[in-house]
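Pilot study result, target chain (248 residues):
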Amino acid sequence: MATEHAGGHSPMAQFEIHPLINIKIGDVDISYTNSALFMTFAVALTALLFWGATRHRTMVPGRLQSTAEILYEFVAGMVKENTGTAGMKYFPFVFSIFLFILFGNFLGLMPYAFTFTSHIIVTAALAVFIFLGVTIIGFARHGLHFFSLFVPPGAPLGIAIVLAPLELFSYLIRPVSMSLRLFANMLAGHVLLKVLAGFIISLGVIFGIVPFAAVFAVTLLEIMVAAIQAYVFALLTCIYLNDAIHLH
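Predicted structure:
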């Protein structure tokens, strides 16, 4: 993936995972990698943001406190709007997921950074964890009645028999769609930026103005996409939680 070509490294080289601290237990490789490093950065930045924001709280908030409060109120409103008051007990989880992905996406836009959300194994792990958690919540709250989620209310028996497998398939495919959406958006944007940056270098100062302008525009777009994808992932989590809590 990191093969050389005329004009520099492959656009896919930026997604290579490299071990920073080699750790092996028998045949199992659990090395600390560049991907794990930026996950650590995402968690650390989240902790630092809210530690700094709550350290000296004031009636007239400063920039840091305002940022933390806006993020908190934004996600709290999203959870309450989509799951009701019954879903607010899961707000800390949704908030953590949102911030983890948001900081991961933004960190990946920095030069020489690593975008761990551009790896399907990471997004799939998050999506499967959410899917299993939501399913467990559904069965814990409703027992076997949770299966009624797959039967459209008021549908005649003949139609219900046909629709139930489709509803079940739609439910089972949720982690796939969640993980692919985030992975594909982050991957495609970073590849495009790398390709356009390569044109700037190969065309020189004068003729490289056009691709430079394109890189600037795409970077602004990627900042917006980074925020939107974190929001969409958290929103889908809320929608799936609503299904588990209210069975609709």
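One observation from the pilot: The chain has seven helices and six strands. A full batch analysis is planned for the follow-on phase.
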